[in-house]
Amino acid sequence: MGWEKFMKISLKEAELALKEGNKGYGAVIVSRGKIVAKAHNTEVTDSDPTAHAEINAIRKAAKKLSGLGFEGSTIIATHEPCPMCSAACIWAGLTRIVYGASMEETAKLGKKRIPVRCRFLIEKASASIEIVEGVLSEECLNLYKRIGVK
Question: What angle do CA 85, 44, 28 make, to 5 degrees?
């Protein structure tokens, strides 16, 4: 599937986060080829360290999908999900994770994160989640280069 068009929407969400004074991360959840939810991180404006883009998108999608109806759904995020967000994807039952910039790439830019890749958590959980890496990675990396990763 052409994940690029959805990643462009995630990038717009990341830009919206920045305009609001938050960190620049965006995510979209797609089910049956249609957007179910789109979100960006709101950690700063919500004073909530768990308000990552992926968590916000999962929360919005859960309301539309009646709770845990995520089978067959994909999350498209501008950055590789952190351990918290990766675990949320597992618990939600998402089928696929698509991301742009990897933890390794943004670590080279100075991003400090818990260095546990989403693939590692998925393998440890024996979850059946496909991972698609590097979709529009240059655009995502350019965003983080421009703003300085946080």
Answer: 40
pTM of the model: 0.93
Tallying the residues shown for the chain, one arrives at 150
Tell me whether residue 4 is one of the annotated catalytic residues.
Answer: no
Three-class SS of residue 138? helix
Block residue for tokens 């390794």:
104
- For 65, the 3-state DSSP assignment is coil
Dihedrals φ, ψ of 128, to 5°? -100, 75
Q: How far apart are CA 112 and CA 18, in angstroms?
A: 19
Q: Is 45 left (phi over 0), alpha (psi -120 to 50) or beta?
A: alpha
**20: which DSSP letter?**
T
Tens-digit pLDDT profile for residues 105-144: 988 887 777 889 999 999 999 999 999 999 999 999 988 8
Whole-angstrom Cα distance, residue 89 to residue 96?
9
Q: Which of 13, 43, 54, 105 is catalytic?
A: 54
